[in-house]
Amino acid sequence: MGVYRAAVIGLGAMGMGVAKSLLARQIDTVGCDMSAEARDGFALAGGKIAATPREAAAGADALLVTVVNAEQTEAVLFGPDGAVSALAKGAVVLGCATVPPTYAKDLAARLARFSILFVDAPMSGGPVKAAAGQLSLMTSGDADAYARAEPALGAIAGRVYKLGTEPGQGSTMKMVNQLLAGVHIATAMEAVALGIKAGLDVGEIFNVITGSAGNSWMFENRVPHVLANDYAPKSAVEIFVKDLGIVLEEGKRQGFPLPLSAAAHQIYLAAKGMGLGREDDAAVIKVYQALSGIELPAGDDGGV
After folding, report:
1. pLDDT at residue 304 greater than cutoff 80
2. Residues of the chain with CATH 1.10.1040.10
């Protein structure tokens, strides 16, 4: 096959880590992003850059779409400068965005008309694991698609969960993960806010809960953002407005009740309505601050 070539469309917090991980495994990699700053950053890391998805896709064996949602995925692949028009037959697209399972299934069918393979491959692990090439990928696809994608998958992931041959199965699992993640964050912030209102110190809440049965990965990861008064977006409020929206739409499609997801979604919607959509998702605690008048940490102690 010769030199394996990858293209990464979307050089945000996750996509940049993915692209650099491919480079670290000596894979010839082209990066593309709307932001000139992001493109320049990847060029400084030793990568090649392209101004459009079409330019990036030319000659690629694997195209990794590391954007935010289905709408951006659609534009990257089928827009005026879309990648599909430049991808060779037999190339593979890795759909890494969190999208509705029905969209992933439809996308695979449309790509097949161009003889392009598809791996449904949403990511989990955050920017730190993306940069380390240790993401968890929740994937599905046929044997040919996996074979074509294997060098790229091996470069960016610590774990590749192969969930079946049908596109959409990977996105369904990511949806389940996001249900839990979104509810856990909202619940963690509600619990911390209640503790503050009742007179507890936030640092003590963190220390006790992280050593107790009520702990969760999201509690342990996000409460330090509150302690440090640092709401720079590692994962923004608006991400969970979208992702829990996907959960609720699938529940509606399945005729399945999701009362906890719906309640959490309302908290994220309230935060976005307060102008916090682009802040870190831990900023949902500010909804409770607005409702109850609690005082949040100023961050002078540097957090935990």
Report:
1. no
2. 173-292
Between CA 90 and CA 67 the distance in angstroms is: 22
pLDDT tens digits, one per residue of 62-105: 999 999 999 999 999 999 999 999 999 999 999 999 999 999 99
Residues acting as catalytic residues: 174
CA distance 266 to 244: 10
The residues with which 219 forms a beta bridge, in sequence order, are none
Query: Chain-centre distance of CA 190, in angstroms?
Result: 23
Q: Supply the DSSP symbol for 123.
A: E
CB-based burial of residue 221 (10 Å sphere; 0-12 exposed, 13-18 middle, 19+ buried)? middle
Cβ-defined contacts of 215-224 (< 8 Å, 24+): 216/184, 216/188, 217/184, 218/181, 218/184, 218/185, 218/188, 219/184, 219/188, 219/191, 222/185, 222/188, 222/189, 222/280, 222/281, 222/282, 223/188, 223/192, 223/282, 223/304, 224/303, 224/304
Q: List the one residue out of 242, 247, 289 whose CA is nearest residue 269.
A: 242
Half-sphere exposure of 215 (CA within 13 A, CB side): 12
Sequence-distant (≥ 6) Cβ neighbours of residue 251 within 8 angstroms: 257, 258, 261
Burial 146-168 (b: 16+ CB within 10 A, else e): bebbebbbebbbeebeebeebbb
Ranges in the chain annotated CATH 3.40.50.720: 5-167
SS (H, E, C) 156-182: HEEEEEECCCCCCHHHHHHHHHHHHHH
For the chain, percent of residues with pLDDT exceeding 70: 98
* Assigned CATH for 173-292: 1.10.1040.10
Helix axes 13-24, 143-156, angle to 10 degrees: 90
- If 0-12 CB within 10 Å is exposed, 13-18 middle and 19+ buried, where does residue 217 land? exposed
Q: Please state which CATH number belongs to domain 5-167.
A: 3.40.50.720
